[in-house]
Amino acid sequence: MYLAVEHQIDDVFHTASALKVKMDESTDFSSSIANGVDGLLRQDQVEVCERVTYLEKKVRVQEDEIVCLKSAVADILRRLNQVEAEKAQNSILPTKPVFKSSTPHKTTPRTPRRTPLDNVYVTPPTRHSTPPSSAKSRTPIKKWGSMTNSTELNGSHNVSSKDPQWNSEEGNLRIYLRGRPVSLYAPSDLSDYSVDKEVTTPDQKLQLEYVFGYRGRDCRSNLYYLNGEVIYFCAGVVVLHNPEEQTQRHYLGHTDDVKCLAIHPDKVRVATGQVAGHDRKDSKPHVRIWHSTSLNTLHVIGIGDFDRSVCCLSFSKQDGGAKLCVVDESNEHELFVYDVEKGRKLANTKGSQDPVLAVEFHPSEPNSIIDVGKGHIQFWTLESGKLTKKSGVFDGGTPSSNTGPTKAAEGSYYMYTKVSNIASGSRAVLTTESASLTASSFCLSFQYHMKGLPGTLKVFAGDKTSSLTSIWEKSGVQPNPDQWKNVTIEIPQFNNPVISIEGTRGNSFRGDIAIDDLILKTPSRCCRKWYVIISTS
């Protein structure tokens, strides 16, 4: 019986061992399967990443091809429109005048030519049209031009010193353009002329054929090559000049002088900004986005937002030109960002008091903007409807000429008071008020630079609980103004010491005051052994 039980126990152990071996084999098999699956997944992940990278490159190449195709189609459409116009009007090159025959001949009725303002979509705020005048107060229709004053536009007949005046003795008509008198002499066979006489509008109208000139003295980014044409502006006209055929097309949608120009990434749309006109209601500075082939206005943006004029603008690159940044010529040179399709303002903020020369979106970051100008470069980030700024640091002299140092006294950096566009008497203060200095006497040393027509540089010291006392002062131009000068000042002991360095602006913009190598030492006697507490070098 014991032997039988022993044999049964042995059988059970053998069976358990066999099961354990099988379980170990199944576990090894499962782990091998898991490892194989993980390897396949990793391989698939690598292949997917490579495939996505390849597709991204292909999409970018196709986008470039699409832009080229758009440009080619736009050029073809422009040439077709030009051929049709030549057939319809029998026009020739603008350098050859057209002489009309004295023999009358019948002309076939022509379809009215579409102007660049047809089918215009104006974004809010909406421009309200003037209500039609009554028959009694009807006046001749006058078209707005870049040289027109507001008196001529409003149709008013109030007698004033700047109304047109006929001089019968000299035989000329005296008018005013932008406040300046201009005399127009009448033909010899005209003995009398009435400025109040109402005349009907002529059947024939003048059409702009060729523009001579180019605006480049006070603006930049004003010349581009687009689809076989050179595009630029002069006065209130944007010129699309074909150098091969020596012909021009003109965009006439603006109401006053154009100041800046930008090309959309699709190489078809164009944005142009204008200055403020004489009519405050109808000629406020704004931006127009228009089609370079049909010359039709697509959007009018920023009416009522800008001050004086629009000095520079740019489309975003990374998102296909979905946003437009604009800088005006107000005192603060405000920066605006708009949604191009909706015409909605996304953000705006004050920029720099110095002139801004150019603004651009970052080529690979859709929400990064850079603007540059006189003595500054600024990096803007658009996030959650707000623009945040980081200013670039220049190594060298101050922005204003003939004032300030050309380099730091020690190292690469120094502090200076910038006095351009700052009121006379303004102060810049560097103080230890927020620091907790021990009750002790100190020795202050630094280097200063005062060139041009500077104001005053002072050092104050005292107790935090009382008023400070001036213990050192320099004013006006110093000897050898191009050189940095050292100064060492002993400061007496106070219970709660406070030390301040103050620069006050003078009466000239050429009065930058700079300090460098600032060191505060203790104990008070500067000839003894001392320990550095504050150092800027």
From TrEMBL:
<feature type="domain" description="MAM">
    <location>
        <begin position="380"/>
        <end position="529"/>
    </location>
</feature>
<dbReference type="InterPro" id="IPR005108">
    <property type="entry name" value="HELP"/>
</dbReference>
<dbReference type="InterPro" id="IPR013320">
    <property type="entry name" value="ConA-like_dom_sf"/>
</dbReference>
<feature type="region of interest" description="Disordered">
    <location>
        <begin position="94"/>
        <end position="166"/>
    </location>
</feature>
<dbReference type="InterPro" id="IPR055439">
    <property type="entry name" value="Beta-prop_EML_1st"/>
</dbReference>
<keyword id="KW-0963">Cytoplasm</keyword>
<keyword id="KW-0677">Repeat</keyword>
<dbReference type="InterPro" id="IPR050630">
    <property type="entry name" value="WD_repeat_EMAP"/>
</dbReference>
<dbReference type="GO" id="GO:0000226">
    <property type="term" value="P:microtubule cytoskeleton organization"/>
</dbReference>
<dbReference type="InterPro" id="IPR015943">
    <property type="entry name" value="WD40/YVTN_repeat-like_dom_sf"/>
</dbReference>
<dbReference type="Pfam" id="PF23409">
    <property type="entry name" value="Beta-prop_EML"/>
</dbReference>
<dbReference type="InterPro" id="IPR049813">
    <property type="entry name" value="Elp-1-like_TD"/>
</dbReference>
<dbReference type="InterPro" id="IPR001680">
    <property type="entry name" value="WD40_rpt"/>
</dbReference>
<dbReference type="GO" id="GO:0016020">
    <property type="term" value="C:membrane"/>
</dbReference>
<feature type="compositionally biased region" description="Polar residues">
    <location>
        <begin position="146"/>
        <end position="166"/>
    </location>
</feature>
<feature type="compositionally biased region" description="Low complexity">
    <location>
        <begin position="123"/>
        <end position="134"/>
    </location>
</feature>
<dbReference type="InterPro" id="IPR000998">
    <property type="entry name" value="MAM_dom"/>
</dbReference>
<dbReference type="GO" id="GO:0072686">
    <property type="term" value="C:mitotic spindle"/>
</dbReference>
<keyword id="KW-0853">WD repeat</keyword>
<protein>
    <submittedName>
        <fullName>Echinoderm microtubule-associated protein-like 1/2</fullName>
    </submittedName>
</protein>
<dbReference type="GO" id="GO:0008017">
    <property type="term" value="F:microtubule binding"/>
</dbReference>
<dbReference type="Pfam" id="PF00629">
    <property type="entry name" value="MAM"/>
</dbReference>
<keyword id="KW-0206">Cytoskeleton</keyword>
<dbReference type="InterPro" id="IPR036322">
    <property type="entry name" value="WD40_repeat_dom_sf"/>
</dbReference>
<dbReference type="Pfam" id="PF03451">
    <property type="entry name" value="HELP"/>
</dbReference>
